[in-house]
Amino acid sequence: MQLEYVKAKNGSLTCTFNGIFLHSSYNPESESERFTQSLKIDFIPSNIIVIEPALSYCLKNLKERFPNSNIFAIRFIKNIKNAEPDYTFEKEFYFENESGLKTELFNYFGEGDLLNTFFVSWPGSTKVFSEQNEKTWAVIKELLKDCQSILATRQFFAGRWIKNQIKFFLNLSNTIQLNKIDIPVLICASGPGLKNCIPEIKKIQDSFFIIACSSAIKPLLYNRIKPDLCISTDGGFWAKKHLYCLLDQDIPLAVTPEAAVPEKLFLKDIVPLSYDDDFTKNIFEKENIMCTKAKQNGTISGTAVELALSITDKKIYAAGLDLEAGIGFSHTQPNSLELNSCIKDNKLKNIDTRTFSQGLESRSLEMYRAWFTEKSEEFSKRVSRVYNLKPYRHKLGFIEDIDIKTISSQKNQKKNYFTQKKCSTVDKKQVLEIYSALLKNENFIKNYFPADCISIARCTDEERKEEFKAQLEKKIEKIKSFIKRQEEGL
Questions:
Q1: Where are the beta strands (DSSP E) in 265-381?
Q2: How far is CA 388 from the centre of its chain?
Q3: Are the C-beta atoms of residues 230 and 214 closer than 8 Å to each other?
């Protein structure tokens, strides 16, 4: 494949790739202007991404027509010249493979900005790079679908998350600090694979620091396995059902502020987790609350793995991290939500019907699996996934799958890895004042109500825009009313 620079009829620079022109051979400037004017964009894009713009003639015209948009490029050709020295994009992304491009775009823009981005292919490049162009659009389609899913979740739970955060800071009384761990860590997720591993986990529980994800707590306790730490990050109403079994246990709970937690559990030992965002981080600092840094992920298992990586330099093993569809229950039993669901079973809608639908492949499973697969090379030296009797069907990239029996001979000496630190000085009035102020903070609102903010930003119809603003204000007013009720209760 060969790139060749030649002169167009009007004397401007143009080029060919394998003998095919990427720009007009007569007047590339006029071609670029016609291209830009032909674009029909029914919203105000924060970003415009041009797929292989070749010599970048279109950049000047795009900047003139969309002065408030940032212009980016996805390249198939490396080290291509620009027609003019100042034709420089904000950033150029290079297509090497689908997974790499998807990860790079998501990491750079995030879901909010991506959904306010306009994508377009440079016409000349679609002919020459038809295969790469097709793959790139497939990545974009999949990426935007993921972003819509993430934003839909954030939008649905936003009000609940903020209320959970307020309850967290108002109720926090006993905090403990998690110190460095000098033994291997075993993370227990609640996938079906955990069931087969439980007999072996019972044998090795005294030699590993065991972290139980929320839905794995009940099956571990049922089998007389006491985790060293439980973790919960889910802000949904039903998520706290998994935590009720801790009320009569002496097990520390690592929890993020937006997680749904039974209020009585705050009387127990809590390891506060902070995602280190500017909002909750500020409250932790103002109230002098010791916390452990955590990384936000779509799946609690991802947060648990990255937490484990930060607290030990030893090996980390994960059981029950199936992340795949299967026949029967999607979680190891007993499961708190299953105990609630089975009450509604009847002859027409029985347990088999319900568990069949649970076992189907879902978009969420694909996303969780993809997250681990994309992280796999980074994790592979320290993280392994364990199974017993039945290997997992889906690989997680470079993460090794090993038989749990191969680690059963390890003998490690457990210690107390927690430092007690009472937290009885939280200024509740100040916390409520902080949240009242945050509800006027534009960045806070964008973070928690991204879909509303995107709808407002994209809308060109003023009447419709006012409707979107009114919908957002209604949601904010509900949180204000909640804060007022908390103030009255102090």
A1: 270-274, 292-293, 316-319
A2: 29
A3: yes
pLDDT recorded at residue 30: 97
The pLDDT of 465-471, averaged and rounded, is 94
In one-letter notation, the amino acid at residue 199 is P
Residues making up the chain, counted from first to last = 490
Cα-to-chain-centroid distance, residue 195: 27
With H, G, I as helix, E, B as strand and everything else as coil, classify residue 163.
helix
Closest by CA to 457, choosing from 161, 36, 47, is 47
Q: How far is residue 295's CA from residue 303's CA, in Å, rounded to a whole number? A: 6
H-type alpha helices, 380-461:
428-438, 442-448, 450-458
Omega before 334 within 30 of 0, i.e. cis? yes
Strands (E) located in 328-404: 383-387, 400-403
Spatial separation of the C-alpha atoms in residues 242 and 214, rounded to whole Å: 6
Which residues, including other chains, have CB under 8 Å from residue 477's CB and lie 6 or more apart? none
- In angstroms, the CA 300 to CA 372 distance is 12
pLDDT one-digit tens code per residue, 64-77: 999 999 999 999 99
Cβ–Cβ under 8 Å, residues 383 and 301: no
Q: List Cα–Cα distances, 217 to 189, 224, 247, 413, in angstroms.
A: 9, 11, 12, 23
Across the range 316-339, mean pLDDT stands at 75
Residue ranges of the alpha helices (H) in 361-461?
Answer: 363-379, 428-438, 442-448, 450-458
Instruction: Please choose, from the candidates 214, 308, 197, the residue with its C-alpha nearest in 3D space to the C-alpha of residue 253.
Output: 214
Distance CA 16, CA 376 (A): 39
What does the pLDDT read at residue 360? 40
For residues 304 and 321, the answer to whether their CB atoms sit within 8 Å is no
Which among 101, 166, 109 is positioned nearest to 137, based on CA atoms?
101
How much of the chain, in percent, has pLDDT values that exceed 90?
67
Structure tokens at 265: 């559990």
**Position 206, amino acid:** D
C-alpha pair distances (Å), 341 with each of 153, 157, 300, 337: 22, 22, 22, 6
> SS3 of 248, please?
coil
Q: What angle do CA 106, 110, 112 make, to 5 degrees?
A: 135
